[in-house]
Amino acid sequence: MSGIPDRKESQVRQLMEGPYPVVPAGLAAGAAARGDRLLRRRRALRRFGWAVLFAAAVAFTVWASLTRPWATPPSGISPPLEGW
Question: DSSP labels for 39-75?
Fold first, then answer.
């Protein structure tokens, strides 16, 4: 079997030797422009996400400083009056 070339190997050799398909003229420029758009979109989304996270942290800090949820709420029942 080592003397007989494999069918797949012969097909790969034929593809590697040519003829090569014609590549459209603007393919590289179009791919670069699309990649640039994708990078700009990802960067904008990342900045937006950080801005939302920062705004949520500020809103939580303001809410917590105003409502003070760690303090115990005042009791609605007053202690009994003694000593009168």
Answer: HHHHHHHHHHHHHHHHHHHHHHHHHHHHH-TTSPPPP
- And the tokens for 21? 């398909």
Helix, strand, or coil (residue 21): coil
What was the pLDDT predicted at 71? 87
Distance CA 63, CA 57 (A): 10
Give the CA radius of gyration of the chain: 36
Helix (H, G, I), strand (E, B) or coil at 36: helix
Tokens for 67? 């409502």
| pTM of the complete model | 0.58
